[in-house]
Specification:
Layout lengths: L2 E3 L4 E3 L4 E19 L11 E2 L5 E2 L2 E2 L5 E9 L9 E7 L17 E5 L5 E6 L8 E10 L2 E11 L2 H8 L5 H18 L40 H4 L69 H43 L8 H38 L27 E9 L2 E11 L6 E4 L6 H4 L3 H22 L5 E6 L6 H10 L9 H25 L13 E9 L5 H13 L5 E7 L12 H6 L1 E3 L4 E5 L6 E5 L9 H15 L3
Parallel strand pairs: 1-10, 15-18, 15-19, 16-17, 17-18
Antiparallel strand pairs: 2-12, 3-4, 3-7, 3-8, 3-9, 5-6, 6-7, 8-11, 9-10, 11-12, 13-14, 13-21, 20-21
Helix pairs in contact: 1-2, 4-5, 7-8, 7-12, 9-10
Organism: Streptomyces sp. JL1001
Pfam family, one: TerD
Family: Belongs to the CAPAB/TerDEXZ family.
Length: 664
């Protein structure tokens, strides 16, 4: 039975391999310190934080997130460590809350590796504090216990570290916050939480309930009509259901030939909540058992969106469990070897060799069992992906999906747009679509520089830049294709006119708001136009006078594509661009930049906030994006048009025809 603790209360821990789960209503920084018998932190090597997330027996998240899972192996802690203190702090300088009193009370739970909750603690009565010692695990007479602490610090992370006895706490706090800022810049933003609440408790023996399902859209788009979305693809008859999942998880499938069971180890089992009365009922013609489950009243777009994010999280956590198990096996082998070889008797004869062989055999056994569990999860996810991919609507589908050839410009904005695929090295053929919500909440930066990826390093610089601009053009075309006619406009700044080739599809189709702007005058004109739009809409919204906007103002969403930044930009233009990146998304002005950050280094740190505000993608495969749950480095694969296909031209022609028919 779970022990629900209050401040100061303790509870005996029945096991030494644990997870500490943190659920907050806003992104928080999670860390931990180790203390000796007197609670003293002996140095920075005893502190786990996003900039240094791993210690022997302890691992924390590499970034700020609303949910965290900290892995703890009390037997593997460094010699002399008798206490683990879990610390939470609000990130600074990112525009979020600055005190815990302004956010829901954080919830912390200590669980076994199978998800069984041992003890929990809700940190209530916080106000001006921006950092808090949540709980501590401590050893008393060879018995490990957990104590609810809940000590807040209005002085923030530095004050909390100072109270832990850390030397130079302000410098360390700055290092941690810088690591958090870098992590936020590379992290994929999670989808919104469910409307029924911010906190998710984990029932004993049950799977996690994912707090990532999107809220119902007020007017869902039309249901899928493509045959691939309503035919046999909704079941997995060609696939054989994988074997039983690992301990503590749900079965991966039913008998061979039956439909796939989507109850994954960490998949939300319950149907999403019913939509409000304004949402229409389920559309006729949809299959009785849709691909993404049978959530009554939710559109296919909503179900598929939640399905894909569920697969994303499942893969992240399955791989995290596997890597943690492998690390534990290696750590255990090292400890057993140290104990065996520290005994002088084992240095004589073959005792030492036998000890080494036994330790390695145990390591191999644990690793093999972990790999078997991972393979079962991967097989389940692969079977699910094979069913889901053909059923995706155009906004969620890759360029090679036949749905694009039958695409019609919609009358409603879809929930999200696919901008690429993600995969991990444990199984590179299992691709997760990377979806971003619409309207865009964050600009996009297509990196045209020589990144650390092998593909970029081997590519000619000019070819890489052209490929980056082609990627931006393809994303602009996808956005135009999924918005209703006239509700999305694309502006282009090409100061040197170097992108004429990649821009040709947009120019020839006549779907741009105007010719690509060239030269300093063109740059200044477009930036002044969009800056004026942001200013006017902001003033109208604040004054509650949206009807007073000038009649010549286009109230549709606007996308600014900037090629080869910072060429052609003076200081004023750079300031305007930063203003659009910060203020534009809230009023419908979005940024899509093609730039090499190294070339922009001449501006110094003034551009750092700009880069951090954008989601960085690459024109070639690159391992740089992080998931919002575990922080794995995912390989991003850009969407590419199949060789010889004219799908891009066909889509843009459909956009132009829809605009003409609508008189836009």
């Amino acid at each position: 039975m779970t022990a629900e603790l209050v401040r100061g209360q303790n509870h005996t821990l029945p096991q030494t391999r644990l997870e500490i789960r943190v659920s907050a209503g806003t992104p928080v920084v999670a860390g931990a310190t180790l203390g000796d018998e007197r609670g003293t932190v002996r140095g920075i090597e005893w502190i786990a934080h996003p900039g240094s997330p791993q210690l022997p027996g302890l691992e924390v998240s590499q970034q700020a997130a609303a949910d965290h899972r900290l892995a703890v192996d009390l037997e593997a802690l460094p010699t002399g460590a008798h206490r683990v203190t879990v610390l939470l702090a609000l990130p600074v300088g990112v525009g979020g809350p600055v005190r815990f009193g302004a956010v829901p009370a954080p919830f912390v739970a200590v669980t076994g590796l199978d998800g069984t909750e041992i003890a929990s603690f809700t940190l209530t009565d916080l106000d001006a504090e921006s950092a808090v010692s949540a709980l501590e695990l401590y050893r008393r007479q060879d018995v490990w216990k957990v104590r609810a602490v809940g000590q807040g610090y209005a002085g923030g992370l530095a004050a909390m570290l100072a109270d832990q006895g850390v030397t130079e706490p302000a410098a360390l706090a700055g290092t941690i916050q810088e690591a958090v800022t870098r992590g936020l810049a590379r992290s994929v933003a999670p989808p919104p939480r469910t409307p029924e609440g911010d906190r998710v408790r984990h029932a004993t023996g049950s799977a996690d309930h994912r707090p990532t399902a999107p809220p119902p859209a007020p007017e869902p788009p039309e249901p899928l009509t493509d045959p691939a979305a309503t035919g046999p693809a909704h079941t997995a008859q060609p696939h054989t259901a994988p074997g039983p999942a690992a301990a503590g998880t749900a079965a991966a499938g039913t008998s061979a030939g039956g439909p796939i069971n989507y109850a994954h180890p960490r998949r939300q089992h319950a149907a999403p909540p019913s939509p409000p009365p304004t949402a229409p009922p389920a559309q006729q013609g949809q299959p009785a058992q849709p691909v993404a489950g049978d959530a009554t009243g939710w559109s296919m777009d909503e179900r598929l969106y939640n399905q894909i994010w569920g697969m994303f999280e499942d893969l992240a956590r399955a791989v995290a469990a596997y890597r943690s198990a492998v690390d534990f096996a290696e750590s255990r082998m090292d400890q057993e070897l140290d104990r065996a070889l520290s005994d002088p008797r084992n240095r004589i004869g073959g005792a030492g060799d036998r000890a080494r062989e036994a330790a390695r055999a145990k390591r191999d056994e644990l690793t093999s069992r972990a790999r078997e569990a991972l393979d079962r999860d991967l097989a389940q996810l692969a079977a699910e992906a094979a069913v889901v991919e053909p059923a995706l609507p155009a906004a969620y589908a890759g360029w090679g999906n036949p749905v694009w050839h039958a695409h019609r410009i919609p009358m409603e904005i879809p929930m999200a747009l696919r901008i690429g695929d993600l995969h991990l090295p444990e199984r590179t053929d299992l691709r997760i679509p990377l979806l971003v919500r619409l309207p865009l909440e964050r600009g996009i930066w297509v990196d045209s520089g020589r990144t650390a990826s092998e593909a970029a390093a081997l590519m000619d610089t000019d070819r890489l830049r052209r490929l980056a601009m082609e990627t931006a053009v393809a994303h602009a075309a996808r956005l135009l294709a999924v918005y209703p006619p006239g509700e999305f406009a694309v502006h282009v700044i090409d100061p040197a006119g170097s992108a004429a080739g990649p821009l040709a599809p947009l120019v020839e189709a006549g779907v741009l708001a105007g010719p690509p702007a060239a030269g300093p005058g063109g740059v200044a004109s477009v930036l002044a136009h969009l800056t004026r739009r942001v200013d006017l809409v902001q003033m109208a919204v604040r004054a509650g006078a949206a009807d007073s906007l000038p009649p010549d103002l286009d109230t549709g969403e606007q996308l600014l594509v900037v090629n080869d930044f910072p060429h052609g930009f003076d200081d004023r233009a750079v300031t305007q661009l930063r203003y659009l990146a910060d203020e534009g998304p809230a009023v419908g002005v979005h940024l899509l930049m093609v730039a090499d950050r190294e070339e922009a280094s001449a501006y110094g740190p003034i551009l750092d906030p700009l880069w951090r505000s954008l989601l960085r993608i690459t024109p070639v495969a690159d391992s740089h994006l992080a998931d919002p749950w575990v922080g794995h480095a995912w390989t991003y694969e850009p969407l590419t048009v199949p060789p010889g296909s004219r799908v891009l031209e066909q889509v843009l022609a459909a956009v132009a025809e829809a605009r003409r028919a609508a008189g836009r």
